[in-house]
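Collaborator request, handled under Task 6.
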Amino acid sequence: MSTAPADSSTRPRKRIAIGSFLVGVIAVTTLFAIGGWQRRWNADDGLIVLRTVRNLLAGNGPVFNAGERVEVNTSTAWTYVMWFFSWITGGQIEWVAIWVAFTLSVLAIPLAMYGTARLYWPSVSAAGGLSLLLPLGSIIYIALPPARDFVTSGLENGLTIFWVAGLWCLFLAWSRREPGRRENLHILVLAFVAGLAPLIRPEITVLGGLVLLVLVCSPMSWRMRVAVAAVAGFLPVAYQVFRMGYYAVLVPNPAIAKDASGSKWGQGFKYLANMFGPYVLLLPVVLALVAAGWLLYARRANRAVAVDTAHPGSDAVASSRGRHAKPDEETVATAIADDETAAGGRLSRWQSQLRQPRTVVLVVLVAGVLLTLYWLRQGGDFMHARVLLTPLFILLLPVMVVPVTIPEHVRLAWRAPQSPADEVVRTKTRTALGGAVLLGLVWIATVTWAIVVHENTLEGEGLDIGRVGIVDERRFYAVNMGNPNPITGQDYLEFPRMRAMVEAIDKFHDDGAVLIASPNYDEWYFARLPDKMPPNTKRQVTVYFLNLGMTGMNAPLDVRVVDQMGLAYPIAAHTDRLSDGRIGHDKILPTEWVVAESGGVNRYPYLPLFLSQDKVQQAQVALTCPATRDRIASYKEKPFTLKRFKSSLRQSFGFTDYRISRIPEYEIERCGLKMPESTLPAK
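Structure tokens returned to the collaborator:
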């Protein structure tokens, strides 16, 4: 909030404004930090990231299962941030995840508030009277229990809002900075940060892309535009080439498993209601809109008053001149020249107007709306409020703090005007006073709302997932394990089936087996491997379970962990989405597939009785489909050579959209393969 040197009369007012801002920042940040730390935890999905970090540290590469090139994590940047801090500190990676996420989340709040304070600082510093910069949007955000839940969680939420806040500050600084010696450097830094968007989260590219679009359309040389494109695109493009060649797909595997291009509007609006309902969130949203509307009105009103004061009667004078003046030859010639350059002039004016704070505000609002619509179309998520927290944070940026200005001479609002100038002053004073009262009431109402709802919970308090498939994830695990702060893999041993899984892994570690969850929490079903394994195939335990995080963190790295919905299992990921499945879990691969693919024995008594011998044999045949075999080879083939990289690079376009039927019999028909004979006795 740097300004030009102020005279002695304005310094106290500015100090009060800065002081109110600092008090608000300290209070809001402290409350957010305390609330986030009280709710510290690592989600099961957060532990999925940490399994990949374990493999990176062990030298197995950025994979979930050693020897299978599958990108299980959506946020590339978060994976490598976690790897870096785990490597540099040597600490227990679950606690590294807690501290890194906590730090980034907490820092995002003052950073965002600082950017918004810079947005309003010119009007605050120029205003007479007493000005305060009060937190508003920041209070709304931190008051939401799910916002405090995801201060940690082991997921990328903290990194995402920190990046958003940093981009907000850089973008606003660019809009206000005068061209100077280091202008190009500042532009390139902004371009680099905006270009990180697809590595932070693929959908957040909406915000980064809009920022870059404004940047390249603003006045600059073509050489500079090329430099902006190169700086912004180098890292994400380089990683995308790596992804295509290493993982053989265009997107992270969760995007395929969850069909990120799918459409579930109805479920999306249920997700929105699930977020708004428990906290009456509509109330502070309306209050924030009222505050934003007033600030916009006041800005335009002050501009109009300034014009009228500086040029009284200018419209009348111009009108009079227009009626009586005759164009001379010079005027005509100028008009012709103007017509010839009109198009270029309009383009230049449009470009120059892009570099304005109002453009920055418009960009973040458009990005926030588009991201909200994307998640509504996608159907939201199974975690309560999680994916809408970032769009909400973005939409609240312009009102993270709001300026409340009490006019210097309040009594002028009621003094009878003695001249037209006095009338202008009285109108301006009344407007400013009314705005201060309105914003003060909005702030008080928002604080009251926050106090009332900040500990509200979903109905059922985590005990029940519910028909809509959405759950308060942190509370669900805390209640089911009797631990308010589950953090490490060992903490999750208290979750049903986990201790029994560890015992089963130890039992079958040498001989290998496919472990299948049992309704009995104290034991696991298993499918044995044949006595004689195919050449170059090692005996390995494969755990087939939905909760990848806790399973992966409690299983050794030489144990394979895969899931029914396909986050770590491409065969499941490439099945079609179930229209009536639980959101985020709407792909369910029958167990017979994993028995067949893992090389398990396909007959009784070596096969659990609840599985079908016929379906296992059909799955074995279905896996010989040429396209499916190519897909499996793309992530399993060893050694990984340059030839394999180039082949995967070419195949990635087709593999991303490749789909198979989850029913082995239908898949055999789709591929034109021969159906195996049934083992069932003839009727």
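The cover message to the collaborator said: "The chain has 29 helices and six strands. Residues 309-327 have pLDDT under 50 and may be disordered. Please let us know whether this matches your experimental observations."
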